[in-house]
Design a protein that fits this description.
Low-confidence stretches: none
Protein name: NAD(P)H quinone oxidoreductase
Number of helices: 9
Strand content: 25-35%
Bound molecules: NADP nicotinamide-adenine-dinucleotide phosphate
CATH class of the largest domain: Alpha Beta
Largest sheet: 7 strands, mixed
Structural class: alpha/beta
InterPro entries: ADH-like_N, ER, GroES-like_sf, NAD(P)-bd_dom_sf, Quinone_OxRdtase_PIG3
Domain Enoyl reductase (ER): 10-322
Helix content: 25-40%
Keywords: NADP, Oxidoreductase
GO molecular function: NADPH binding; oxidoreductase activity, acting on NAD(P)H
Length: 325
């Protein structure tokens, strides 16, 4: 089969559509004939040599896909050849075929196109596991989402709104109108405005109960300052650096919590549990039209380099999909 391989660490032009060995399904795995995959920020880091795939994952990128099951390995129950699925992957989605643990498969939600469903698993699992499982967001609370226009952000805004939270999001001004349509109650242009001040004003001085952060070090102090009493900060990205200074006095005065998680390196059982939770709690919201895939555009997979340039420019809103076949 063919896949997008990384000839050597570097810019988008190191990506090439090449012949690679076909995947074989191991015990508990199925093979999916890929119809589409999606570009995630992590793929750019992997291409640059900063984010190697975990042991056992294919060497080429792709953290999610949609497609049709074409083979099943031993010890797989409840999945049949011909099923249309989308899947959370440890890697290897930029390909014609990929082997996936059956626990990481999700049905294509009713009302969502097979291609568009490729943009759901990574954001749904990341956002739900952090905002609901880790940070326990509840109705009536305030959720601050950084990078509201990202794949993660567009999903977090919708999920937060569907769960009954007030949603504040940071994004460049050009994206505000689109993010308001998705359910953000307040948009902060982080280039011009101080998000701590904006969150305080919007909450009568209380602050945000939950912060979903993708910036890391550069926002750490201000995120703690933006937290309400008993607030929960969950860091899932380090776009602003990995080493910051944490004022424990400020945190303990608020009885605050700082957590950080990565989905890709979680053990298989944890991923399967998250996928089950997403299927039970998030898929009904998707099928009811309250949370939708936000697709910036679809490009053929041979244009993966162009897709990476687009995501690197941050001009997209939501997900950039790569279609196969
Ligand atoms: N830990 C995990 O398990 C996990 C899983 C998935 C993703 N992630 C992380 O989540 C983040 C989003 O991923 P993605 O693939 O959805 O990203 P993406 O679509 O590539 O978007 C990146 C976003 O960063 C925003 N941004 C840049 N500088 C900013 C700043 N100073 N303040 C606020 N926003 C800023 C950009 O928005 P503007 O155009 O508005 O600047 C852009 O929307 C990445 O950091 C990724 O590594 C983590």
């Amino acid at each position: 089969m063919r896949a997008i391989t990384i000839a050597e660490p570097g810019g988008p032009d190191v990506l090439s559509w090449s012949e690679v060995p076909d995947p074989q399904p191991g015990p508990g795995e199925v093979v999916v004939d890929v119809r589409a995959t999606a570009v995630n920020r992590a793929d750019l880091l992997q291409r640059q040599g900063h984010y190697p795939p975990p042991p056992g994952a294919p060497a080429y990128p792709g953290l999610e896909c949609s497609g049709v099951v074409s083979a099943t390995g031993p010890d797989v129950a409840g999945v049949r050849v011909g099923d249309q699925v989308c899947a959370l992957l440890a890697g290897g989605g930029y390909a014609e075929r990929v082997a996936v643990p059956a626990g990481q498969l999700l049905p294509v939600p009713a009302g969502v196109d097979l291609v568009d469903s490729a943009g759901l698993p990574e954001v749904a699992c990341t956002v739900w596991s952090n905002v609901v499982q880790v940070a326990r967001l509840t109705a009536g609370e305030t959720l601050l989402v950084h990078g509201g226009g990202s794949g993660i952000g567009t999903f977090a805004i919708q999920l937060g709104a569907a769960l009954g939270a007030t949603v504040v999001a940071t994004a460049r001004a050009a994206k505000h109108e689109r993010l308001r349509e998705l359910g953000a109650d307040l948009l902060v242009d982080y280039r011009e405005q101080d998000f701590v001040e904006e969150v305080r004003q919007a909450t009568d001085g209380r602050g945000a109960d939950v912060v979903l952060d993708i910036m890391g070090a550069s926002y750490l102090g201000r995120n703690v300052a933006a937290l309400a009493a008993d607030g929960r900060l969950v860091v899932i990205g380090m776009q602003g650096g990995r080493k910051g200074e944490l004022d424990l006095g400020a945190l303990l005065a608020k009885r605050g919590t700082v957590a950080a998680t990565a989905l890709r390196s979680r053990p298989l059982e944890q991923k399967a549990a998250i996928v089950r939770g997403v299927r039970e709690q998030v898929w009904p919201l998707v099928e009811a039209g309250r949370v939708r895939p936000v697709i910036d555009r679809r490009l053929p997979i041979i244009d993966a380099a162009q897709a990476h340039r687009l995501v690197e420019s941050n001009e997209h809103v939501g997900k950039v999909l790569l279609t196969v076949g």
